[in-house]
Amino acid sequence: MQTKLICSDIDGTLLNKDRELSVKTIEVIKGLPSIPFILISSRMPQAMEHLQAELDISELPLICYNGGLILKNNEIVHSTEIGIDTTADLVEFCKDTTIHTSLYHGREWYVPGMDYWANRESNNTKVLPVVQQLEKTIDRWASEGKGAHKIMCMGEPEELDALVDYIAINYSDLIIGYRSKPTYLEISPKNISKKTAIDALIKNSYPEIQLENVLAFGDNYNDIDMLQAVGTGVAVGNAIPEVLEVVNKQTATNKEDGVALFIERFLSMNKARKSA
Prior knowledge:
By secondary structure, the protein is α/β, with parallel strands linked by helices. 38% of the residues lie in helices and 22% in strands.
């Protein structure tokens, strides 16, 4: 099958140990022969756009918030939000804990204070949040008819476990939490995923492409449905066991430029087949 679209997760997959694009990765992606390279992540737009700029792909769509928001040339292609009442209730639940709660909508990121977690996430993503009482954010969003594209909760694993249980009991049909690491819980609408985002992207921007024409890279729980659905699902060597079990291809770790190495080898093999 011919590869016509490449989608890649960012953290733990495309970026190296310094959370940056390596020289090798930039070189390989810039050299792609007319195959769109789409960044697909739980990150917000600003935390992805500087990577697009480094790769010279700023004109291509972005899939943000695990598929909750798709942008193309700053225009919304697709958007799914967590309801404002659900958002308010989760914020209220976390008030009685030491959990740091961040609220995201589009290009907005609000935190109650620049604590350890906010500073860490800001440093990792190169985006500075707005410090504001979350209740104030919720009131404004309610008046504007908006909800959260993502709720990020960071803190002690035991407290996050309790939040996971609370969600399972009260909101299992509305939202889902992805544990990107023991201290991180990323909460999204349940009816979206990276797979549904690729479906929406193809429908709106690449109608000539089928899922079997997609090559995708990932490393974590929120990549599983995407990697299972596409024609070629590739796990980087540092991926969690659950990801390694479902993919049909594997490459080197993110620290070893696994995405770039696979693309080089994959395209070289395809070129050889065509000329044979």
